Amino acid sequence: MRLKQVTLFNATAAGNGTASPLDWADYETHLRTVATNLAAADTIAIQGTVDGGTTWAQIASHNAAGIFADTISGPWQQLRAVKTGALGNATVVGLI
Fold this sequence. Notes:
The chain is mostly beta strands. It has one domain (about 5-95): Jelly Rolls (Sandwich). It has strands spanning about 5-10, 15, 20, 30-40, 45-50, 55-60, 65-75, 80-85, 90-95. A hairpin with a 7-residue loop joins strand 5 (about 45-50) and strand 6 (about 55-60). It is globular, with a radius of gyration of 13 Å. The mean pLDDT is about 95.
């Protein structure tokens, strides 16, 4: 397994971040770390998929300004971040 740093989202506007495939997606449970920096009280959701991107499940969510770290556990094939609101910038970086 080879982990890499990936920016899942970096914008002020609401929207979906780019889906990023995990290095090891064999339907076993693996741990990944995702850091979120919210400049304002918008909402950012970390989502994962196990079916190639057809269905997304919410794994973590934050809705206040601040810096957050989440340990993502599961058989996820891809991760993405989804932001609602446009009060300030949000950056989500994963070590995936």
